[in-house]
TrEMBL record:
Residues 51-147 form the Methyltransferase type domain. It comes from the Bacteria. Residues 262-293 are annotated as: Disordered. One of its GO terms (molecular function) is S-adenosylmethionine-dependent methyltransferase activity. This is Malonyl-[acyl-carrier protein] O-methyltransferase. GO terms for biological process: biotin biosynthetic process; methylation. HAMAP family: BioC (MF_00835). CDD domains: AdoMet_MTases. It catalyses: malonyl-[ACP] + S-adenosyl-L-methionine = malonyl-[ACP] methyl ester + S-adenosyl-L-homocysteine. Pathway: Cofactor biosynthesis; biotin biosynthesis. InterPro entries: BioC, Malonyl-ACP_OMT, Methyltransf_11, SAM-dependent_MTases_sf.
Length: 293
């Protein structure tokens, strides 16, 4: 598994600063959102509570509320300015609740969520054990987890352009689908299904891609990133290296997108502990009367 570590405070600040500009640059996010909504066809019940983790400006939350009008919809995001922006998508006919919180510490009781949805948020969380353990905790038995995240091939051209200049970290790294799947199984989530799609977006120049990343809040947030200012000469060399990758007159940028779903574990299903052992939990009521006299 990759040893990268995400600077959570930097992620929160990046997305907070991008709240006003996010929807000017989110074409890919909208496309991936449609893929997630298609997976909801596998969910055959009427949910009572849905949580949208990393809800951002609330566009996906509004779509979920429209599909399940009678369900309670809770939009959770770590960046408060994003939740302020999400107010534009919560109407008085189909309102949803907005809560500031972290994906690894959801402010919800155990086994209280029917659908946990997250569109392109989980890539900013490096503790997959804590993340999916929390998903398994809040999901009802048989509840549905569906999410998307970026894979390691994302922005490979930009990464290669920087690598031709120096060996410092300039582009965020993302975990492989197999690491994500292993972490889901270790948390006790049932029957995970993961798929990978690759998108190539094109730009008039490398700076247009950089402006889009900044507008989305998706800028470099690894703790190991270079903290000193990048010199103008270094930056120009990177741009020149990226220019050499033009295809049909356009600058390509690859986005590797993992989409997945799984199901909440039944009561007592074991999960893998950090020491490699198996952990199972049962409610107290399920144990009443089991003691022999």
């Amino acid at each position: 598994m990759s040893d990268f570590h995400v600077d959570i405070q930097r992620v929160r600040a990046n997305f907070g600063h991008a709240a006003a500009s996010y929807e000017q640059h989110d074409a890919l996010q909208r496309e991936v959102q449609q893929l997630l909504l298609e997976r909801l066809d596998f969910y055959l019940q009427q949910p009572e509570r849905i949580i949208d983790v990393g809800a951002g400006t609330g566009r996906g939350s509004a779509m979920l509320k429209k599909r399940y009008a009678k369900a309670q919809l809770i939009a959770v995001d770590a960046a408060l300015p994003m939740l302020h922006a999400a107010k534009a998508h919560t109407g008085w006919l189909k309102p949803f609740v907005r809560v500031c919180g972290e994906a690894t510490a959801l402010p919800l009781p155990d086994h209280s969520v029917d659908i946990l949805h997250s569109n392109l948020c989980f890539q900013w969380i490096d503790d997959l054990s804590a993340l999916f353990g929390e998903c398994a905790r809040v999901l009802k038995p048989g509840g549905m987890l569906l999410f998307s995240t970026f894979g390691p091939d994302t922005l490979r051209e930009l990464r290669a352009a920087w690598a031709s200049v120096d060996q410092h970290s300039h582009v965020s790294r993302f975990l492989d689908m197999h690491d994500v799947g292993d972490a889901m199984i270790a948390a006790g989530l049932r029957d995970p299904v993961l798929d990978v799609d690759r998108y190539t977006l094109t730009y008039s120049e490398p700076k247009a891609l950089l402006r889009e990343l900044k507008g989305l809040g998706a800028t470099h947030a690894d703790r190991g990133r270079e903290r000193a200012l990048t010199g103008k000469h270094h930056f120009q060399r990177m741009l020149a290296a990226y220019e050499a990758m033009r295809v049909d007159g356009r600058i390509p940028a690859t986005w590797e997108v993992v989409t997945a779903h799984a199901w909440g574990p039944p009561p007592g299903q074991s999960r893998r502990g950090k020491d490699g052992g198996e952990i199972a939990s049962f409610s107290l009521d399920s144990l009443r009367g089991s003691r022999r006299r």
